């Protein structure tokens, strides 16, 4: 089970977070695809044409990063500011 967390505008749409069961060896991309497959607000918020960043256990990561049971995976929009 992977603990998902959403931040900024994604949190507003999807809530604070949830748990997601994935097969062993799944990647961040597979987790995003599983959420996209739900359709509705998940498909809208995490659409492939939207810039979404991810962090695995509080470290920025690529979508190719492999997940392990108990990991925390966060999704958030790119950060801007000045």
From TrEMBL:
Ribonucleoprotein listed as a keyword: no
GO cellular component: molybdopterin adenylyltransferase complex
MF terms (GO), sorted A to Z: nucleotide binding
Protein name per the record: Molybdopterin synthase sulfur carrier subunit
Keyword Nucleotide-binding: yes
Biological process, per Gene Ontology: Mo-molybdopterin cofactor biosynthetic process
Gene behind this protein: moaD
Organism domain of life: Bacteria
Originating species: Pelomonas aquatica
SUPFAM superfamilies reported in the protein's UniProt record: MoaD/ThiS (SSF54285)
Keywords annotated in UniProt: Nucleotide-binding
Family: Belongs to the MoaD family.
């Amino acid at each position: 089970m992977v603990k998902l967390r959403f931040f900024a505008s994604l949190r507003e749409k999807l809530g604070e977070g949830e748990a997601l069961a994935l097969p062993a060896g799944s990647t961040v991309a597979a987790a995003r695809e599983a959420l996209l497959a739900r359709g509705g607000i998940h498909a809208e918020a995490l659409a492939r044409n939207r810039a979404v960043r991810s962090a695995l256990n509080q470290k920025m990561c690529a979508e190719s990063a492999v997940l392990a049971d108990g990991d925390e995976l966060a999704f958030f929009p790119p950060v801007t500011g000045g």
